[in-house]
Amino acid sequence: MRNVLVVLMSCGLAGGAAFVQARELVEKDRYMCSWGAGTAAKAQELKLSGVSLYAARQKLQTYKFSKPWMRMMAMGITEQTYDSQSRLKPAAIRQGFYDDCVRYKVARK
Question: I need a labelling partner for 108 at 20 to 30 A (CA). Which of 27, 29, 62, 71 fits?
């Protein structure tokens, strides 16, 4: 009986630790997912309004980014958005990107 109790408690603690780590990862990367979702939504908005990919890239070059990785990631997100055949509204793109990003970050941990 004592062995069963020890095994159950250790499994419970291990599961709780994994949950806390996954939750911590989401909180730490929430900004990046939110920023990427906003970038994807803006790119979709430009695409639906008829702005060319070249003009969208030029517009990105004028933005001031707070972190060095943001410019290249914004370029990649914009290109992927333009390559897709999707005609969804920018709000749907934002939510889908955010959900997928969070799911990826949690699964990666």
Answer: 71
